[in-house]
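Run log, item B.
One chain of 269 residues. Sequence copied directly from the ordering sheet:
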Amino acid sequence: MTWHLTSRQLTDYSTGRADDAIAMSVEAHLMHCATCRANLPGDDDWLQSSWADLRDVVDRPRRGLLERLLTALGINEGTARLLVATPTLYRAWLVAMVAVLGCALVTAYTMNGGSLLFYFLAPVLPLGGVALAYGRTVDPAHEFTGVTPMAGQRLLFVRALAVLVPALALCTVAALLLPGRGPEWGPVAWLLPALTLVAGSLALTRWLNLGVSSAMIAGGWLVALAVSTVERRAVPAHFFAPEAQGAWAVALAATLTLYLIVIVRAKRA
């Protein structure tokens, strides 16, 4: 290890004053630097109490159906446990997402051109779940999961994937229920934009809090839609046209590459 954390960085991290981006970098560094781990300020009594509480929480519950299913699919027990222990706000977001998609479907059947509401919302709905899947401000168990070997970008990626799968499944079901007027590719036109926005949000966590990056990406999407409705030469539906799908594919590849670079740098830190 060629560099070490400063005393201020260690103090900010141990007292919870560091933001999520800095905290993840510090955690990644501490995994590989014994010197900085030894210099990390700590309260021995609090640490012993925290580990006792952690063992009590982890050892007490039996494995649920979802956890057993994940392990049957080849996911190791530690990863499956972390996936099942999602924040409670995430479950509330799933309920809200079902309600929003239901409203979008009603609009699609009752208003002329109402299907556009679904296409406008579908790309940003997964962002809400990703923002609520990881972080000190939304996860009561973050202090526990933060001390696991999977903490940082790896846990963020696993949690985001666990959110993305049900979100895409719900949007796909809603897309298939849309009125049968329009091109055959219509039900999947939202998919690449949605994946690109999520990948962009994850890539920005190198510099920003996950909630902030998700809000910025969602806000940018809504602004782009608003501008396209005002600009006479632009139409919001053009964001989902076949010629736009190639651009979305390129953007997705670029953002995924950037996120992989973020993960590699976090491991080396």
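Observations after the first pass:
- The mean pLDDT is 76.
- The two ends are 9 Å apart (CA to CA).
Flagged for discussion on Thursday.
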